[in-house]
Amino acid sequence: MANIKDIALKCGLSVSTVSKALNSYSDISKETRQRVLETAEQFGYFPNSNARALKTNRTHNIGMLFVDEAQSGLTHDYFAAVLDSFKVEAEKHYYDITFINHNINIGNRPMTYLEHCRYRNFDGVCIACIDFQQPEVVELVSSDIPVVTIDHLFNNHTSINSANVQGMHELVQYIYDMGHRKIAYVHGEKSAVTEQRLTSFCKSLMDLGIETPQEYLLCAAYHDPAATRHSVKQLLSLPNRPTCIIMPDDYAALGGIEAIEAAGLRIPEDISIAGYDGIALSQVIKPRLTTLKQDTKMLGREAARRLIEQIENPLTTITENVTVMGQLIEGQSVGRPVPSL
Fold it and tell me: Which of 101, 150, 151, 189 is the S-S candidate for 128 at Cβ 3.0 to 4.6 Å?
């Protein structure tokens, strides 16, 4: 079996240069690295991961902490797209992804998130879709392990955030421009994302001279059509029902559609609805959903890129709060309000 000396001899390079190229050192040019990798592939050479970790002090393994309340896992349309983009970008830099869980015990108790990270010797961790106030999460973020969060801000840590305030404002403005003045919002459960969107919703309407009745604001879990169906049913039973309802997200909107159809109403002829996220499903249901599409590719890519920067250049990387803009998708679910309402 070929070794690193064979590759160095074939490439006409020193052993140390080949070693650096194989381990993605930044002071090696792309051309040299590519030549070394092609030669290594020809020889069928694969560096030993344990030996590489000892030499570089890196395992090239990133932990992913992802626990959504709906327990939909990787079937969660929005976060699955974010995680896939993260994975693609990380793999470009030769990093593997491992999910952090509580399935490993120490004695009679499961490992904490931080203990699991130490056990797996992760180079860094990306945290998304979880209760960020959970003590175990705070402990992990406060450790010396490089961390990037998605859609949550911790002091002195890099975060990648959707433009929730701007996105909700754009959605409300569009609905207002379509003639609606009685707009309700079925928002998700308490989180930083929910607070940003809810505050933006209320402020946007206030700036337009519209006061939002308290009964127009209802809570339903994200990614939960049943909970949204129940909330929309409540809104439809109001004496002065809204002419347009914004749903927690596109998937949860399915429950709202069910409630509207069960009430014998048509979308958008009798009542309008809008979603949030812009998942593929939103554009195949009938009518096509008007929604705020989030840039899941950019969110995942930036999270991976900036985490790897922290791992590989810890002394020169500056923590940043990156905002990723979304895009309004004009579907068919928001029409002109019925005059009698």
Answer: 150
Domains 61-160+296-323 and 164-294 share a fold: yes
pLDDT given for residue 54 in this prediction: 47
CATH node for 61-160+296-323: 3.40.50.2300
CATH 3.40.1390.10 fits 164-294, yes or no: no
Phi, psi of 207 (to 5 degrees): -65, -25
User: What pLDDT is stored for residue 73 in this prediction?
Assistant: 57
Q: Please name the fold of domain 4-56.
A: 434 Repressor (Amino-terminal Domain) (1.10.260)
